[in-house]
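@channel sequence for tomorrow's demo:
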Amino acid sequence: MWYNNILETIGNTPLVKLNKVTKHLQGTILAKIETTNPGNSIKDRMAIKMIEDAEKSGLLKPGGTIIEGTSGNTGMGLAMAAVVKGYRCIFTTTDKQSKEKIDALRAFGAEVIVCPTNVAPEDPRSYYSVSSRLEKEVPNAWKANQYDNPSNAQAHYEQTGPEIWEQTAGKITHLVVGVGTGGTISGAARYLREKNPSIKVWGIDTYGSVFKKYKETGILDKNEIYPYITEGIGEDFLPANVDFSVIDHFEKVTDKDAALMTREIARQEGIFAGNSAGSAIAGLLQLGHSLAADDLVVVIFHDHGSRYMGKMYNEDWLRERGFLQDKKLTAKAILAKRGHQDTVTADVQHSIMETFNLMKALNISQIPVTQQGMVISKVTESDILNALLDNAALKSAPVETIASKGFPFVDLNTSIDKISTLIDKDNQAVLVEDQSGKINIITQYDIINAISEI
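structure tokens (generated this afternoon):
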């Protein structure tokens, strides 16, 4: 058997039992693995549905341009369908989205415009506003508008909900979904509630988003809105696709808990899922006291971990945000083990011989070069030797004439693994600014000494 094109492979994603990350919960916890869709996310379902409905209604015409504001996954589904169907794509997204998502969109030939995150939706610079402007300016354009387009939720009413019902033989008791546009949770929940009104539906929200308070009070509180790191869930406005009537409860999850749980899902379950899966499981663990032994919970795993390699799956990124506290040595720990040590520097106007004598007196093989107190380059023994072998008269020349590219700078939370990759034959040390603003140098010797003391 074969398919006529890649779009025909969308859907029929597997349910997989979770065994370790949820081992302390009662009931059976199943993950709906949407990464097996061809675009590696659940957004493939609604992307093709929105396009097909727009074609039927005449809104999207042959050779037209698809425009959308997207965090990446919807854009991937739209771009994939556009390739098959012959459309052009222009997407707007925010600067908080992972580079991997943006690169993936461009890989399909889409044009991507990156807009600032920390502006209001109505601000002309926001990715919502820019996409709306482009729809008016670009000839033969159609904006998918995933937030308010009813085809979004309808796709999940027709596909995701029925799949879950069939795969669980109607035994599902809880549906847990991270909420962004609202299409997945609203469409799937509407279908499942028609089958069994007693099914509990839990939406996972993030701090900085408005959903939870609006559900509980009916108030859209602008004071609830602030920047957050978690991708794919939460909003600073109310999309039309969020049907609050079919959602029993919203649970907020911190950026840190979401990021760390994303990693744990891969490490404990062998499932390489995205940030919203981490949010969903972290939220479920917070609600776990509500579960009983005979409950059957389905959690949506929206997208693939490959789109978060530079973020949730990057230990240095996690450390920079204070999310990861482990036993692995960091620059801060290396400096602490070494103890106080003044960093010796040479000014750009020092002669080569003065610099060499300073290095000789202190028994060091490399030295940062400064200009008005700022480190701008470095000089090593090899630099001096090679210069004097070429021309002995250079002894009195300013050291800046032979200085080479400066040592790399790292921050205090940079891991020993990262530091080690930066130290090589061209860079024999790294520089780090401590909490007082003082510049410190870390050499290979310091790393070896720190490791030997573990």
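heads up for whoever presents: The longest helix spans residues 150-167.
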